[in-house]
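Ticket closed. Logging final result for Spore coat protein.
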Amino acid sequence: MQFQNQQGPMHENMHTGLVNQQQNHGGHELFDVHEVLSGAIGTMDLYTILRPHVKDPELLAILDRQSQYMRMEYNTLVDCFKTGQNPAVRMQDYNMTQGNDFVYGLKPSQPKKPIQSASELTDANISGYMLGSVKAGAGSKAMAALEVTNPVVRRVIADSIPNCIEMAYELSVYQNKHHYYQVPQLAGQDMQQILNAYAPAAPINGQMQNLNNTSH
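Final structure:
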């Protein structure tokens, strides 16, 4: 049940009484958002550490663009998490600037192994670290969004997930173009068998309802 006062909506706690919007957070939410924010700091710190070692101007431009976006996104989440209300700066979309064409197939390459000093860092290493960190962030945000009770925080985290996916895709396209991330394909017959392994669901009661237009 939600109540209203001059400071905004109030929320019921059956043990302590009413809580304000700033305290409109469940226990699971606090821990999970803590993990999201800590992970975001880790990713931004990683980008800062890696930046001096980048050699390719294209990768440097991606790193700088993603880093700038991450800081805006982080500040937006911190804002609504601390206040429980709409952030001053709304979440914006991240859009990659390069093409999205993948080259399929495997090209012979040297076996990978751990480096022994920072002087061995290559753009392949760096873009791989960036990709792994962004993918981890997308997963933690998806898990956290399912535990958040504050509607504003939930929406901000949920809206940030597609942007993580866009950044990860941008990095994977970059890696694929330079043969750092190679993508094999199945044989044509096997691919078709999997593609044709599913059929549409049958309508319920003879007709498929438009759920968006169904009144509740």
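Helices lie at 27-50, 57-83, 123-145, 151-177, 188-195. No further action required.
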